[in-house]
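[step 3/7] fold_predict: job queued, chain A
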Amino acid sequence: MAFRKPAKSKIGGKFFVYGLSGEGKSFFGLTFPKIGAIDSETGLAFYEDENIKINGKTYNNLAFVDTTSDLDELEEDLDNIIEGDVDIETLLIDSETKFYNTMDIGATEAEEKKAKLSGKAVDARAKWGRIKNINMKFQQAKITASAKGIHIVSTAQGVAITDNDTQKIIGYKPDTHKSLKFDYDVVLRFYVEEDKKTKERRYFAEVIKDRTPVTEVGQVIENCTYDVWKPYFDKRNGIGSVTSGANFTKDLKNSTDSVLNNAELSTKLAKDIKEFISEHKTETNILKQLKSIADDSSIDMKNLDLEEPKKLQEFMSAIENIK
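[step 4/7] structure written:
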């Protein structure tokens, strides 16, 4: 995509909300317009074709639902939305935690099989690298949908952060990949306060991040809904129906293919380097030169498979010239 003159264009807001179970995350998502929901925990089933009321206003905006926690189905749903095959204004993913757990299990199983075949221990670094790549792939798709004017709402379960010494709860964080929240425009932490006498529950959202000029970090909103940001996006998107022109669909596929191709190439080059080392394992002088080259190139000899192919190719060329 080439440079263009800066101009306001239609864009969907990207909202990431987290909190403990029953603290209003799903209700918040259901206040957005014309929703296509990916329900990974079957929690939205209770609200299908049902009115919900918040602040005296009634919402019933759920247009499409896919109940799944399968990563392939998630990818297919995202592709359909990007291609315009599903007519929605909001994509609600409830919740990201379930998909993150699926990524974790899948990556663990893949590395366990790899370790079993090689007779080595499971490589935790490779596992997390695999999860990072999968997560990046899906985030690119969500950003693409947002660039087409579709709102993205992702919910996640919250987990407590405890003090190492006292074990007291000092905060909460989302149970997802740690980089997930950085791609969103608005991040909210939902929580509940209960009156000890009346047992009345009040629902709040704390603003953790907001790229729009609507709210401020640290602001607390009771009974939070999309209506807080609706005037801002209505005004922005009312300028015209022109989108920013950003389309990462092709980039997404190229990035995915590149990740896979790079991984395969790194594996092959690492194998060639290990064979070279094995062939010269009794030649002390060659091994010393090899170690020196590796140190100069910042190559991790214990995790060659995880190095970039370009670095391994340069390393291979250098060690082939060792006398």
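[step 5/7] annotate
The mean pLDDT is 84.
DSSP finds eight helices and eleven strands in the chain.
exit 0
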